[in-house]
Amino acid sequence: MKKLLIISAFIALLGSSAIKAQVTLNFESGNIGIEQGNCWGFKNVTFTNLEFRISGFWSGRSNQLTTYLITDRYIKSPWLTPGSGNLTLKTRLENDGGSSATMRAIVFSYISYDPASPSPTKEGSTTSYYTYNFPTPFNIWVQDLSVPIPEAIANSQYPYKILISFIGTGGSTRAFADDIVIPGTYFSDPANNCTPLPIIIDADGDGVADEEDEYDSDPNRAYNSYFPSVNQSGTLAFEDLWPAKGDFDFNDVVVNYRLQTVTNADNNAVEVFARFILRASGASRHNGFGFQLDGIAPDKIISVSGNYINPAPGENHHTYNMAANGLESGQTFATCIVFGCYFDVMGAGAFNTSHLESFTPYDTMNVHLVFINNGSPAPGGTVSNTQLTSGVFNFFIVGTSLTGEIFGNVQPTYQNREKEIHLANRMPTSLANSSYFGTKDDDSQPANGKYYKTENNLPWGINILEGFDYPIEKAPINEAYLHFTEWAASGGTSYQNWFSDIPGNRNPALIY
Ligand SMILES: [Ca+2]
Ligand SMILES: [Ca+2]
Ligand SMILES: [Ca+2]
Ligand SMILES: [Ca+2]
Questions:
Q1: Does residue 215 belong to any structural domain of this protein?
Q2: b or e along 324-350 (b: 16 or more beta carbons within 10 Å of the residue's beta carbon)?
Q3: Quick one: which ligand is closest to 461's CA?
Q4: Do 300 and 432 fall into the same domain?
Q5: pLDDT, tens digit, for every residue of 263-309?
């Protein structure tokens, strides 16, 4: 008894994957009703404990083998999803059938599942795949049969039944059967008329059913998620005169964005497709634009592509130092520069901020961040989708030094990498110079988590998920949008729809 316990503990340790799934019948219940309840089917086959039983106390026994029809005497398995390997069973004839016996055989067939069948059994077509002929002269010796599961159904995700038919012509004999072992997984539902369990197809084997798998033939990808949504872009709008309020027109960099994150069956990020549409710039300054992934180390990303940083910038552009994976080097957290300077993307000067000037077509940049390539994660390991929320995207612009500015050792009006302008309360990257904080109109207080806000909580950057109609050149946002100041001063609780086109919200003359 003790030994048996140890053996079962050992089997449990092996785990289910080490034990091949089988569907078996040894007749030892001694009760045909019990096995029918287990979804086995029998026609002209009974349970017997008489002489000639094969193993244990009970075997199956057919009626007289007097026809060659496979539908006359059979044992039919429950629905099962077949594995690979051999079906095995023991069989014998009850006698030699006399001198007129001409044929004694067992025919093996499989029955497909037809969900559209009007029959309550949902059985589809029957395909015979193997015939065992009892050796002649016919005798009563026990035969051990081993019949391969046909390739057509081996390891299928669809259910099949195996039909074991006993046939014969000439004379009369019965056949016995016992110890039927079929490689496969039981797939019948005894509580539902023995119909198949719900079928879940996972064609690429990644553990995500085809129905839910947005990449059902790619085991390395499973889901898409979009932010703000698949058909919607958010708008980022920045004022570049920080730390001064300046003209406060929030059109110095206007970018629409949509993020598509692809995750795998383990809910780890595979890649991000970040689409940026550069809509407008009311600035004559060499602003850059990018984002940090807060809390995500640079070695979690394999590669970045689709962004643009001028390899030979002009004298008033900053030179960005890029790591081999395409992120900015020297950063604690992964930082992607989408464009080093908008002049490099759109040409010099302001565009799309004055009704008096012609429209400049938008420029779209598709940035591709790779976290897992062909199933292999970045050197720093995987990033789960709970880590890579839309909230970790910390967008910012890189500004230029203002006249008379002393920080960063950069000539006035030249792009200054140390000057970052983020959305309200978003932290700067490692390369930003915190000496700007608390100067001019800025009231950032890093110790209190307050960043890029004035004393009255006005921001320098806004992120409108519904999209945003930005002010025209030199029109302060609080004159174009009449409740902007109240919204910002309230910390975002009042006038939450300040940007929308409802009466009393806007001065249309000041909006592009
Ligand atoms: Ca038995
Ligand atoms: Ca799948
Ligand atoms: Ca997949
Ligand atoms: Ca401005």
A1: no
A2: ebbbbeebebbbbbbbbbbbbbbeeeb
A3: 4
A4: yes
A5: 999 999 999 999 999 999 887 788 999 999 999 999 999 999 999 99
